[in-house]
Amino acid sequence: MNPKTPLIGGKKSLITRRSALKTLGAASALALSPGYVRYAQAQTAEPLKLGFQLHSTGIGAGYGRWYDRTTHAAVKLINDAGGIAGRQVEIITEDDGTDPKRGAEVVEKFASQHKVDFVFGTLFSHVVIGSAPRAGELKMPYFVVSEGYHVASGALNRYVFQPGITDVRSQVSSMAPWIAGNLGKKVTMIFPDYAFGHDHRDFFTAAIEKQGGSIAALLAIPPTETSYTKYFAQIPADTEVIYHVMVGPGVLTFVKEMGEHFGSKRPQIFGFIDSLEAVDLASPGLEFLDGTYFWEAFPRYAGAEQSPYDKFYREKVGVDANGASTGDPKDIATYSHMFGCWETLYTIKQAVEASGYKSAADKGALIEAVEAITSFAEGNEHPQGNKTFDGKRHQCYGHQFISKVEGAKLNVVHKTSIEDGLYENDTDYTKQPL
Amino acid sequence: MIANQRSLILHAGLIVILFALQFLLPDYHHTNFTSIMVLATYAMGYNILVGYTGLLSLGHAMFFAAGLYGAGMGVYYLELHPVLAFILGSVAGLLLAIAIGLIALRTTGVAFMIVTLMFAQAAFLVTLYFNDITHGDEGLTLTQAARGFDLLGWHVDLTNPSQRYNLALALFLGALLLCLALVRSPVGRVLVAIRENEERTKMLGYDARRYKLLALSLSGLLSSAAGAAYVLFFGYVGSSFAAIPYSIYPLLWVLLGGVGTVVGPVIGTLLMFYLIEISRDHTSSYMIVVGVVLVLLVLWFPKGIAGTIRARWWGWIP
Amino acid sequence: MDLGPHLLLALLEGTVSAFVLAVTALGLSLVFGVMRIVNVAHGEFFMLGAVLAWWITSLVPEAPFWGFMLALIGAPLAVGAIAVVADALVLRRLNYQPEATIVATIGLLYILQQAVLTIYGPDARPVVAPIQFRVVFPWFGYSGYKLVAVGAASLLLLAAWYGVTRTKFGLIMRATQFDRETAQAFGIPVKRVYAAVFALGAMLAAAAGVLVVPLQQAHYLMGLDPLLLSFIVVIIGGLDSLKGTILAAFVIGISDGIISVFFSPTLAKIIATLVVALVLVFRPNGLFGGKAR
Q: Measured between alpha carbons, how far is A270 from A267 in angstroms, rounded to an integer?
């Protein structure tokens, strides 16, 4: 109950371990992990409190576990290097159950009970959409790591930012030219039937039509679905490319059933790695994926072109060259999303230090400092690569990757430029009052 | 008359305490009490059905959600005045309750439980199916601007914690008065008679079905009024409010507080709310508390808190 | 895809879900038939079966086939033991009073589900199918294991059928179902029969969970769907009748398969739940109507 207790690695870690059945005692071990107990004595300044809205349970749990790990790795690094503006960072974690209703309550709790400085870390777009209005009303800076288009679209408010990961609209727009040029022009899309999937549907449709392609069919999968074979029957025979994106606990089933359905007589398949985040490509039943393509934001397998920054980041988070946990080769990371937490934390650091933020009274200055950012340079702070940042849209734009599955590994075959993903819209949050 | 005076002191005291608490509670608990008063209204609505007719519903989430969606979509799509939206949401729940009542009240006991569960599940699926309008899981949020209005020269901002608290208190007071009036009215006595012995009541010439329909309608109306207030106060409507847990919660609150008592639902809601809050701080599996309390209640404490107090000490509690 | 192959796929999918559903629903039906209680925690027994299957198979990663066989026996036994404990600690103390039992089993649902969340975690974990092959039709391929699961489910159904109609335990069960007091007067240990039936129902659900887990992955929230579907099947099929339950499982499974392929799966579920509600209301002599107060 005591909000002052540093909660890092503490209460929620019982269920954040893959080998849960073996490690009932792990929670206490994690609570004592180095780096988080020290500051309490060592620092004189009040810590900077970050509310971490985490999907510990519910359908986002697979991502949540890795968001947690990445966040704590970055915070440890920041704190060991002296913190943010000389203040240690304290992470206060609340589980939102991947439920938008609970998400809004969690934001409320961060603001009024824990009295945090900022809230960050939300992934699932429906939770962001449920929570963001409350953050705006409470005038609480809210940094999401969701890749949804909801920030840049102008649907949210001045307090919401997405500085760590490119939005879906930009991602899919940059994929269309390559797909049309290399795989085919008649595309059937399979996507989840809610906002995240609808962004894929709307923006990819527009982008592929711009390339002279067309959509053969749109298959929206309801969020409660557990069996997918029946949908594959609706894929038209003249489909040249299947474009799939799926999230939630059923992703492995989804991909496996696709393999059973098509076998080797398949059209070209292009997927968003979301369909296989946290899933081992060597899982039985996924052999058919060999020769198919995936979008990745950050290549899971460390290839020949690995940057020194990726190497550094992997080591600190504890991910091996195959994108798995260094402790358990079967525990696959959500590598194309979780770097967003890391980069967002460094953006917060940059903005706090630039604005001279001290307390809640300086939130306006902080917001303006984030809005003043125009780009991020590639480095240990931004290992995924350089990015531009649009202060009016509160959204960053970076490079994307296309990888081919070869021998149960992903090899990068194409890297987009930032310009490939640019689009027009007239969102301008800076016009809203603070 | 002694009993009446005591009852007056008890309920007036409750309202005075709730009014005074707003000046004492820290921010976070201030907001919590606002939702507790709204949810307690929902629980009182539930209690009208189970407490005064003996019918256990497993589907009240559909009435709560009817109020929530009625008011929420009224504001979101029709840009209704929040007061009108509140009325729209409440009426939507009332109409749904009448419709469901006409069908489901042909059953009793276990069958009634399953029928209401099924109807509520269908209602939940409807909120997902009409994704284009309801936005399903993701839901709709109401802007701060849409939740402000002028009434009789007074500007109300529903995002203002203090105004919100007092409006929730007013809603709760209204529900409390309605329940007290119902218990004392001849209608209330007939309802209790039906609960105790339906056959005998029928023989006395009362049309039991009509009285039960009345109870279900009132129950649905209070539930949907709570739902409508909830969306206007907190600005979010989504399908998780229509899902099974929201049918289980009022059952739990009422069982814990005391079935068939006027103050029971609010006691149960308050305790359960904080029990869940506290367990959330220790585990992600906080719903286990709901399970354990339900089992303990049916095993050893079927009368609930207010019911036990009434049975042992204060027989006058209405 | 043309109409013919499309229909074939719908039928295949429908058959698979019908068989798995029949096993799950049979458990619920037995418990209601004999004990006159509605077990809302039935879906959690299904989930426990799947989760235990993951655990047992992960103990022998080098031999997935034998691991799975072990799970097929071990998981239902463990779940049956849990059911016996739940019966002794909760249901028996309530004297199987119908409404109190429903509330208690709702409590049990949350206890089991959240205990799994605590111990096993929130992730969906895969279990490798014991036998993997792909059946290739001219128009599409189909999971061979799904057909194996159909075979295994039909064996289970046959065994249950035999147990209920041809064995002494089946006779005792039916006698208890027919008239509890008289059965007791004739020296039948009703309490033990109830415990055994509750365990048997749970074991059938767990076995269905084991059969399904290679197709779905084990997840702590997977119990809700089978629960609701079993309700639908048992209510439409008529509660006292095993034949009715199995028949209804096929009607529901196959029509759900077809409606889902040609229309929306959500719409299929809405229609099914509404039909169930109306069946309960308008068949006053069947189902719950007779014994409810």
A: 10
Rounded Cα distance between C109 and C115, Å, is 10
Read off the CATH number of the domain in which A415 is found.
3.40.50.2300
d(CA A385, CA A416): 12
Name residue A196's amino acid.
Answer: F
Residues of chain A below pLDDT 50: 1-43
Task: Tell me the per-residue pLDDT of B49-102, one tens digit each, with 9 for 90 and over.
Answer: 988 788 899 999 999 999 999 999 999 999 999 999 999 999 999 999 999 999
Shared domain check, A243 and A158: no
CA distance B207 to chain A (A): 42
b/e burial code for range C86-112 (CB count within 10 A of at least 16 → b): bbeebbeebebebbbbbbbbbbbbbbb
Are the beta carbons of B298 and C100 closer than 8 angstroms?
A: yes
Interaxial angle between packed helices B208-234 and B186-196, expressed in degrees from 0 to 180 and rounded to the nearest 10: 110
What interhelical angle do B61-78 and B208-234 show, nearest 10?
A: 50
pLDDT tens digit string along B188-223? 888 888 888 888 888 888 888 888 999 999 999 999
Residues A187, A207, single domain; the answer is: yes
Residue C291 lies in a domain: no
Q: Which of B260, B227, B259 is nearest to B246 (CA)?
A: B227
CB < 8 Å & 24+ apart, contacts of C129-138? C129/A284, C129/C64, C129/C68, C129/C214, C129/C215, C130/C64, C130/C65, C130/C67, C130/C68, C130/C69, C130/C214, C131/C65, C132/A284, C132/A285, C134/A260, C134/A263, C136/A263, C137/C5, C137/C8, C138/C5
Q: Are C38 and C173 in contact (CB under 8 A)?
A: no
Same domain, A175 and A275: yes
- CB environment A219-241: b (16+ within 10 A), e (fewer): bbbbbbbbbbbbbbbbbeeebbb
Percentage of residues of chain B with pLDDT beyond 70: 99
- Which position has the higher pLDDT, B192 or B24? B24
Dump strand ranges (E) for A64-117.
Answer: 89-95
Model confidence pTM above 0.80: yes
Q: Of chain C residues 23-42, which have a CB less than 8 A from chain B?
A: 38
Residue of chain C nearest A229, judged by CA positions = C13
Q: Which residue from B247, B243, B244, B264 is spatially nearest to B255, judged by alpha carbons? A: B264
Give chain B's end-to-end CA distance (angstroms, integer).
Answer: 13
Picking from C132, C140, C225, the nearest residue to A261 by CB comes out as: C140
How would residue B156 be classed by pLDDT, with cut points 50, 70 and 90?
confident
| C271, part of any domain | yes
Q: Is residue C293 part of a domain?
A: no
Count of CB atoms situated within 10 Å of the CB of B156: 16
Write down the pLDDT at residue A353: 95
- Our measurement of the distance from residue A356's CA atom to the centroid of its chain's CA atoms, rounded to an integer in Å, reads 28
Residue that the structure tokens 């992730």 belong to: C123
Best residue in A96, A230, A325 for a mutation probing chain C (most C CBs within 10 Å) = A230
In this model, does residue B257 exceed pLDDT 50?
yes
Q: Look up the CATH number of the domain holding residue C11.
A: 1.10.3470
Q: Do C102 and B107 touch (CB under 8 A)?
A: no
For chains A and B, count residue pairs whose Cβ atoms are closer than 8 Å.
83
CA angle (A346, A349, A355) in 5-degree steps: 140
Q: Which chain C residues touch B295 with a CB distance below 8 Å?
A: 90, 104, 107-108, 111
* Distance between CA atoms of residues C63 and C81, nearest Å: 26
Are A157 and A223 within one domain?
no
* Structure token digits, residue A92: 């206060």
> Domain containing A241: what range?
168-305+400-420
ipTM, two decimals: 0.87
Contact A121, A54 (CB under 8 A): yes
More confident residue, A28 or C130: C130
3-class SS of residue A236: coil
